[in-house]
């Protein structure tokens, strides 16, 4: 409820979260909230830690301080990622937001390493932990704030598609666990003299390290080049197919240059006998409308397909029967016959399952198998086959 109210106020009731202005405004706001909340929690836990002499509470306090620094980095990352395109970066600077998320992840890991060392020293040289009810209640309150902050960052992160805020949300959720463990150990300390504090400190520190490693892995994926979102792939395919005269689509490629900065290219099959000016106008319209609707930059390549030629129809039907019996092949496209007389090339692309292909046979073996089957009935054709791998 509070999160939704704040988001509406900051976005000025706009629901177009992909708009650069709205996205930036919400990103800055989330960063500022993160700084304020984490600094407040740091001061509370630092006071409690110094007063009680608990190393685990101190570790949790400085973890919150690193979170405040992470929020500053998030704001800077969003600011830099919104810089306009230039000569060296024609598609903008959107990936800087991923880099800022990566810096946040490394800062989280650094805090974890530091407190593994501090907690181990506390085990070797134990000191008594002084239990007090007021510090205990303050720690419980800090858990409630962290739960809210995690949900708040996730809500905004999902709305504006910010990897940095999603990373901060996951980190805050991890803090809920670590603080809960600290609270439990702090409460148990009133009943025992066993140096539980140092051991709990190590558990907290190891969990911080794990959270940092998870954040590194998640933020590295888009930088390396992860698979595109399935819903976006489906929207592009279905969107292009919805236009008149488009009979098929294939070879979709999506490049991610940062949140809200995707470039996509796709091949659209059209009848070979249609008026070129008419279909060109349809494709131009599709590019423009889908780019605006999906917030991407879409380029559509036209593939003219002959649908009336009897020789092509007959050969295609025959080859479809051959590939339908092969579990490795998912589909066929760009089918055409080029040449005259006795010198004709049968050209087509096959989409195959990448995982099944490597296990069952090689790409060369699959081509040879298909070509041999075709030669049995149509020896006059020279087959030119392109294998497209589907990473399912």
UniProtKB/TrEMBL annotation:
SUPFAM superfamilies associated with the record: Cation efflux protein cytoplasmic domain-like, Cation efflux protein transmembrane domain-like
Spans traversing the lipid bilayer: 26-48, 96-116, 128-149, 170-192, 198-216
Coiled-coil region: none
InterPro entries: Cation_efflux (IPR002524), Cation_efflux_CTD (IPR027470), Cation_efflux_CTD_sf (IPR036837), Cation_efflux_TM (IPR058533), Cation_efflux_TMD_sf (IPR027469), CDF_Transporter (IPR050291)
Compartment(s): Membrane
Membrane topology label: Multi-pass membrane protein
Ranges of residues in domain Cation efflux protein cytoplasmic: 228-304
Major place of residence: membrane
Keywords (A to Z) from UniProt: Membrane, Transmembrane, Transmembrane helix, Transport
Chain ranges of the Cation efflux protein transmembrane domain: 32-221
Highest taxon, organism lineage: Bacteria
Family: Belongs to the cation diffusion facilitator (CDF) transporter (TC 2.A.4) family.
PANTHER family: MITOCHONDRIAL METAL TRANSPORTER 1-RELATED (PTHR43840:SF15)
Protein name: Cation transporter
Species annotation: Clostridium yunnanense
């Amino acid at each position: 409820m509070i999160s939704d109210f704040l988001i509406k106020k900051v976005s000025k009731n706009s629901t177009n979260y992909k708009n650069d202005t709205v996205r930036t405004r919400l990103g800055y706001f989330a960063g500022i909230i993160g700084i304020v909340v984490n600094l407040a929690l740091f001061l509370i836990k630092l006071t409690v830690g110094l007063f009680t002499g608990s190393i685990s509470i101190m570790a949790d306090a400085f973890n919150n301080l690193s979170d405040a620094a992470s929020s500053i980095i998030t704001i800077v990352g969003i600011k830099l990622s919104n810089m306009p395109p230039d000569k060296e970066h024609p598609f903008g600077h959107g990936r800087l937001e991923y880099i800022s998320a990566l810096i946040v992840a490394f800062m989280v890991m650094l805090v974890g390493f530091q407190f593994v060392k501090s907690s181990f020293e506390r085990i070797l040289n134990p000191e008594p932990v002084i239990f007090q009810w007021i510090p205990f209640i303050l720690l419980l309150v800090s858990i409630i704030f962290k739960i809210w902050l995690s949900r708040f960052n996730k809500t905004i992160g999902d709305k504006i598609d910010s990897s940095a805020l999603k990373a901060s949300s996951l980190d805050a959720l991890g803090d809920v666990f670590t603080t809960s463990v600290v609270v439990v150990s702090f409460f148990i300390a009133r009943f025992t003299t066993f140096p539980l504090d140092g051991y709990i400190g190590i558990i907290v520190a190891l969990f911080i390290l794990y959270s940092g490693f998870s954040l590194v892995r998640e933020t590295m994926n888009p930088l390396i080049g992860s698979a595109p979102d399935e819903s976006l792939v489906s929207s592009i395919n279905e969107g292009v197919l919805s236009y008149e005269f488009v009979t098929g689509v294939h070879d979709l490629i999506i490049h991610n240059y940062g949140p809200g900065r995707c470039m996509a290219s796709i091949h659209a099959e059209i009848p070979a006998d249609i008026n070129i000016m008419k279909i060109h106008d349809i494709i131009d319209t599709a590019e423009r409308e889908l780019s605006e609707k999906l917030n991407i930059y879409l380029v559509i390549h036209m593939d003219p397909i002959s649908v009336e030629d009897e020789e092509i129809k007959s050969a295609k039907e025959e080859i479809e029967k051959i590939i339908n019996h092969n579990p490795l092949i998912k589909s066929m496209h760009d089918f055409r016959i080029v040449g005259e007389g006795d010198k004709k090339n049968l050209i087509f692309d096959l989409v195959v399952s990448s995982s099944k292909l490597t296990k069952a046979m090689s790409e060369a073996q699959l081509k040879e198998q298909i070509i041999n089957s075709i030669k049995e009935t149509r020896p006059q054709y020279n087959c030119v086959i392109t294998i497209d791998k589907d990473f399912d």
